[in-house]
Amino acid sequence: xxxxxxxRCTGLSHSxxxxxxxxxxxxxxxxxxxxxxxxxxxxxxxxxxxMITTLLPTTPDRITVxxxxxxxxxxxxxxxxxxxxxxxxxxxxxxxxxxxALFARLFDVPRRQRAEQVRLALDLVGLxxxxxxxxxxxxxxxxxxxxxxxxxVSSPRLLILDEPTIGLDPVARSSVxxxxxSIREATGMTVLVTTHYMDEAEQYCDRVALMHAGRIRxxxxxxxxxxxxxxxxxxxxxxxxxxxxxxxxxEGGIRGVRATRRTARRLG
Length: 268
Ligand SMILES: Nc1ncnc2c1ncn2[C@@H]1O[C@H](COP(=O)(O)OP(=O)(O)OP(=O)(O)O)[C@@H](O)[C@H]1O
Ligand SMILES: [Mg+2]
Hints:
Helix content: 40-55%
Protein name: ABC transporter domain-containing protein
InterPro entries: AAA+_ATPase (IPR003593), ABC_transporter-like_ATP-bd (IPR003439), ABC_transporter-like_CS (IPR017871), P-loop_NTPase (IPR027417)
Structural class: alpha/beta
Radius of gyration: 20 Å
Strand content: 15-25%
Bound molecules: adenosine-5'-triphosphate, magnesium ion
Keywords: ATP-binding, Nucleotide-binding
Domain ABC transporter: 7-238
Number of strands: 10
Largest sheet: 6 strands, mixed
């Protein structure tokens, strides 16, 4: 039997009142890959993640996580997932260790294994030495790493990160990504991540989907998407092409950007 997809979304939609935040998303994430969900503000990325993590309601047969239906078996799905939300989730009044221990309890890590799992998670993100300081004394980068430890403490098969590096300096950004990469390497965990930083997506994601106005507009490896736009294109240009106003027209933006690049080469 072939291994089920880590995540499969089929015709996934969600509206907030009159706002269609997610509008017919089909998506398949392979076990073990780092998958980037990219898109401008308001594209529907967080809404999509919140449906996958069971935090927003869905109807049956729309999402499975490792073959388990999210609407039918919410608790079973929650046990498979570690989630770092976009909004900060650590409690400043607690120490790093207490924050991670709280998640270990929430996510049903067996009592006898808790202390050791908490220690391991803090170690993985490089916070062992700072574990007993209160989180309000941490820098932004340390907070993000603490949240990563919170998500990892239950040894999830699927790690979901919503803008894990937003607001961090370049060194802290690469530190978070290096941790994610080495954890993935060690555990074979699947990672689903959103980011606005195209250089990060290019460097760390096996495949990416570009989302705009609730829909997936392009999907593939960074190299495939770049090649689709033309020689020497960057993911940044693909992003602009896909999310630009031109996409409102039938032809799509890719053609327009290709023409612009040809013109630029002629002139340059
Ligand atoms: N709780 C909510 N109530 C009403 N509207 C919402 C709510 N959450 C999101 N929306 C709307 O749904 C759309 C998609 O929002 P979402 O947060 O999924 O976007 P996003 O891609 O994560 O954006 P960002 O990059 O800014 O985080 C937006 O138009 C947003 O205003
Ligand atoms: Mg968001």
